Amino acid sequence: MGKTAFVFPGQGSQRVGMGLHLLDQRPDLLDTYYREADDILGLPLSKLCWEGPEEALRDTSVTQPAVFLTSIATLDVLRGHGIGPALVAGHSLGEYTALVSAGVLDWTDALRLVRRRGELMAEVNVRVPGRMAAVIGLSLATVETLCARAAAGTGQVVEVANDNEPGQVVVSGQAAAVDLLCEAARDAGALKVAVLEVGAPFHSSLMADIEEEFAAELAEVDLRAPRVPVVSGVTADLLGSAVDIRDCLRRQLTGRVRWTGAVRALAAAGAEAFVEVGPGHVLSGLCRRIAPEVPGHRTDDARRLARTVALTGHRTARPGTAA
Predict the structure, then answer these.
(1) Using CA atoms, how far apart are residues 65 and 260, in angstroms rounded to an integer?
(2) pLDDT tens column, 64-112
(3) What whole-number distance in Å separates Cα of residue 242 and Cα of residue 285?
(4) Binning pLDDT at 50, 70 and 90, where does residue 129 land?
(5) Most CB contacts within 10 A, which of 33, 62, 193, 286?
(6) Per residue in 163-186, pLDDT tens?
(7) What is the 3 state secondary structure string of the chain?
(8) Residue 256 in contact with residue 203, Cβ under 8 Å?
(9) pTM, whole model, 2 decimals?
(10) What DSSP character marks residue 34?
């Protein structure tokens, strides 16, 4: 029996209307997750997911719980069809959904954490304005060298934030340093350089100020040992204990997202199919390019969800709720 790996998206996958196709086939999700999330956060999160406006959905403190909630509801739909993961991983924010799917976190605890995580990350940008940019077509080593030069040339922070796939690197830091890095990357022959629409310089040392506060939040939450293997996006290794998981979630704020390594680890552990669980399709494309021998499936609209269920429904899983 083949192993299915569930991969969970992070910030950047949000869109107005996400999750509506899930309610069409599972109206019970409204009470099970959406109204519950609205009550827990004191925020009309479900309405923001379905109706926007887009500007509000781009607010980091809203984006993170919104993407998480959509992914959790999608996970429940898949489980209702008897489809579950043999392995899991999540991209940045998506790691929280991965941990829920592995039985490490209750979904309500994870929801509160991602909301607070988003609030803290947005606060950093108020104190130290920054930005992120994607560099396409240069090696990781080349971008690391260019970051060091741009930091030296400006006296500001610019660091590799995401190793998304070979040839796609995201940098994060203060505005002048990121701008200089972008210019240097174009001069070095990058195929594309684009500033990203995000709310803060994520996954950089500029996030260090909030590590301690967020660690205190993590300390209040019960974490259990995973029931299925979880590959960390921080280390690209399997996470074994609750202690390791808590440490990785703390380090995730300032640490690099090692998605290339995480996907390769999933493939090495025997993944024979990837299912992107939640909104968007970014991870499906990344997984296809990192591990082209492993087929990928999506769940972000009704047609693709039905196809995924049809193609992966033969795999053994234990149906049930997301927590």
Answers:
(1) 25
(2) 999 999 999 999 999 999 999 999 999 999 999 999 999 999 999 999 9
(3) 31
(4) confident
(5) 33
(6) 999 999 999 999 999 999 999 999
(7) CCEEEEEECCCCCCCCCCCHHHHHHCCCHHHHHHHHHHHHHCCCHHHHHHHCCHHHHCCHHHHHHHHHHHHHHHHHHHHHCCCCCCEEEECCCHHHHHHHHCCCCCHHHHHHHHHHHHHHHHHHHHHCCEEEEEEECCCHHHHHHHHHHHHHHHCCCEEEEEEEECCEEEEEEEHHHHHHHHHHHHHCCCCEEEECCCCCCCCCHHHHHHHHHHHHHHHCCCCCCCCCCEECCCCCCEECCHHHHHHHHHHCCCCCECHHHHHHHHHHCCEEEEEECCCCCHHHHHHHHHCCCCCEECCCCHHHHHHHHHHHCCCCCCCCCCC
(8) yes
(9) 0.94
(10) I
The residues carrying an active-site annotation are 92, 203
Cβ atoms < 10 Å from Cβ of 234: 23
Find tokens 């599972």 and name the residue: 26
Instruction: Name the amino acid, one letter, at 257.
Output: V
| pLDDT band, residue 322 (cuts 50/70/90) | very low
**pLDDT (0 to 100) of residue 232:** 97
Mean pLDDT, the chain, as a whole number? 94
For residues 235, 241, 245 and 248, what is the CA-based torsion angle, rounded to 10 degrees? -40
Element (DSSP H or E) covering residue 239: strand 238-239
List the one residue out of 189, 192, 153, 190 whose CA is nearest residue 173: 153
What is the per-residue pLDDT for 1?
A: 41
